[in-house]
Amino acid sequence: MRIFISFASEDWSIAEQVQLKLSGEGHEVFLDRDSLPPGESFDARIRAEIARSDLMVFLISPDSVRPGAYARTELKLARQRWPNPHGHVLPVVVRNTDFDDIPPYLKEVTVLRPEGNVAAEVLAALPTESPATKQPVEPRRTAVAAMIGAGAVGGLVGAIPVLRGGSDDMIGVGILLGLIIGGFWARVGVTAFSIVVALYLIVVALLFGI
């Protein structure tokens, strides 16, 4: 998971501990002071990193939520990327902060208040799987399944006239038409597939005299 840590410079040591903990568990973590190469545009890199992140860990302290803090700018960018913070933003209180000072966007989700080791509790609170990191079904496997399924249906339809005394060739024709429709399904999706299936059944009925 790609994780962006937003924090005030006063909380650097805590942010670094969180980064080390998350990186040790295989996450790709961006921490501005540690991750920015010399001479690179700060604002542009921050925007780019938030845009490619799956999750923002926002370390809440009086310094990170005060008006004018750069962390507030990072939070604004996060809100533009994720209008709904659920599953994308993890607010963590690292120093006592007046609840009224916490931005409403952060209060839309449960605010983590660690009782022990901050880094360990942040790791434990991470979503098990963010929307952006869910693995899609392998397209090739989906296409093959669609073609096999439609081909089987076509074969069954083609068997109807055989059972009624027709030619055995009808089964082959039914399977061929089914495979063609299955390939179309794999490319265009379920809605268009439903329309084509209706046309397919009409054609089969005309060809096979069903």
List the main descriptive attributes of the protein structure presented here:
210 residues; alpha/beta; Rossmann fold; 2 domains; four-stranded parallel β-sheet; 9% strand; elongated
Summarize the structure.
The protein is α/β, with parallel strands linked by helices and 210 residues long.
Taken as a percent bin, the fraction of beta residues is 5-15%
Q: How confident is the prediction overall: mean pLDDT? A: 79
Contiguous runs where pLDDT drops below 50 for at least 5 residues: 130-139
Number of helices: 10
Write the CATH homologous superfamily of the largest domain: Toll/interleukin-1 receptor homology (TIR) domain
List the secondary-structure elements in sequence, H or E: EHEHHEHHEHHHHH
What CATH calls the topology of the largest domain is Rossmann fold
Spatial strand order of the main sheet? 2-1-3-4
Binned, the helix content reads: 55-70%
Q: Please provide the count of β strands.
A: 4
The domain count comes to 2
CATH architecture of the largest domain: 3-Layer(aba) Sandwich
Characterize the biggest β-sheet. 4 strands, parallel
CATH class of the largest domain: Alpha Beta
Query: How far apart are the first and last residues' alpha carbons, in Å?
Result: 55 Å
Structural class: alpha/beta
* Rg, alpha carbons: 28 Å
Q: What coarse outline follows from CA principal-axis ratios?
A: elongated
